[in-house]
Design a protein that fits this description.
The complex is a heterodimer of chains A (451) and B (133). By secondary structure, chain A is α+β, with helices and mostly antiparallel strands. Chain A contains 15 helices and 21 strands. In chain A, the strands form four sheets. Chain A has a seven-stranded antiparallel β-sheet with strand order 7-6-5-11-10-9-8. In chain A, strand 17 and strand 18 form a beta hairpin. Chain B contains four helices and seven strands; from the N terminus they run βααββββαββα. Classes of the chains: A alpha+beta (451), B alpha+beta (133). Chains A and B meet through strand 19 of A and strand 4 of B. Strand 19 of chain A pairs antiparallel with strand 4 of chain B.
Amino acid sequence: MTCRPHLSYAVYGIARFWWIWLFPLWRSVTAKPLPLREWLPILVLLTYTIFRFFRCRYCLQESKDGNFHSVEVRQGIWLRHTTHLCAEDAASVEVECTPLLWLLGGRRVRISTTGLRRRADVLLYLSRSHAKRLFVTEPSTPRERGSVWRIVVFALSGSNAAVGLLSVSPLLRQMARSLRDFITQTVTDTTGNRVWTTLPPLLQTGGMLLLAGWAFSAIRTFLRYVGFSAARTNDHLCLRSGWFTRRDIRIDCDKVMAFEVRQTLMMRILQVYTAVVTAAGYGRDVGARPVLVAAADRGTMYRERYRLLPSFSDTPCDGITCHAPFSYIGMPLLTFAVWGMTVLKGVWWRPLSIFGLFLCAWWLLVRILGFQQAGYGRTDTVTQLSYPRGLALHRVTILNRAVDCLTVIRNPWQRYRGLCTVRVRCFGEKHRQHRVKGISYEKWQKKNTLL
Amino acid sequence: MTFTIGTRAVWFIRTVTTVSVVTVAVVVRERWTTVVCAILGTALWQLAALICRRFYGLVSDTTVRLRYGVLWKCETIVPLSAIRSIEQWIPPFARFSDTCMVILRFAGGNLRLPLLSEQTATALVERLQQKEK
């Protein structure tokens, strides 16, 4: 069946060049009407988009059971290009419904294979009914929905950067207050007063902006994951998430390479777990990995893993633990000691020193927890690594067939103590590495005799 | 199949480092610089041989293993099934040094095998291509 794309193709084609039409439009609203020559770029853009819309064709073929079988997309005005894609080559299919698409009655479909392109292989704009018939299949098993309360907690505490903004905000406001007191008491000349009196409001505004940034991040995360549900049908994972922007994602289970549990310190305190998977070919546009469990307690998370990805449940029970605490906590301990000295000696401005000490304490606590759970394990099917990275704790389970490169490094001190650092690279994660430090080299060799 | 750095490559590296150190000593022409250059040159002469001796690779039925490093010892294991492409690079001074670089590319990165002799590199590439088939 050959058809044209939905109208939203043209709308998003125009919106993509917002930097061309936004300025003249703003000027026409705020100032006197613009001459025709200033509207020329917009007219050219509109004409180009309309031509592209009318020249684009989708040829969608359905299988016997009414699902998507193959697609051929022909588009372009001067340089015509055609893309063919079969359903069996599709690693993931994402159907997206933004508020604008909902208004227009359309859906955006991204189909990705396991190639190395930065964007999705095929991007389609279809009508709602067409997209639903071809790409959205309701799974036969019931969907497990996330708890709203846990998603709220995850939204408020899941991002270290956002929590960091929240903690920097009161510091800036305190700086504004201290500076105001300093100015009124010390600065007397008019010019200096004029310069210095602009700083406290700026710092105050900065603090409010950081608070707004944290709130924005929390709301965005909440809206992304509220209504999250996951199910499995035959060989596909069906994930649904989002409130304003609804996403239906279907991922081939054979393309799932790794299962990762990530926790920040706040999430650890509040007992909230998040699990993401690495699916080869998914998320190239935005760099995100699909979430399998948005926010759940420990039991629910492992139950979901067993239900949705049973091949990842064969986890090793006799993993190798870490024996080198200073490889994890050495640097945080040192910086904690340095900031502690600045607080005791009063070297720098006191609120800043206390804030630095607080950050180092946070980092040290994360590393201590990370060291306690750090380890390496391997079975016939999976390899599992636990390690802290930055300010978060990670536990990764990788299929053995997805392990692309294993590197073992021993520095002179580790050789003396019989320890090593193991680094693993996995298919589908580009240049990301998983690293565990300070495990026994002899035990590692015994576990990897088949290699 | 095993592979190591070629003997001529070792002598090529030794020659280059010695010439560099001697050039610095001649240009500066100062007593203490000459002493330092002499010590450094001797150390680099021995280190070059040690680095090349510690470089050792093995191609088994399922994996490519590489061991290298003097102070920091590293061991890299790449499954044959993960290798996506094999490249062989020949530098312009290959005639004097008899050196080649083989790069094994996989989805998560690549593994570089430098300073192999041309014969070893060709044999290695053929062996890996046979395994792929």
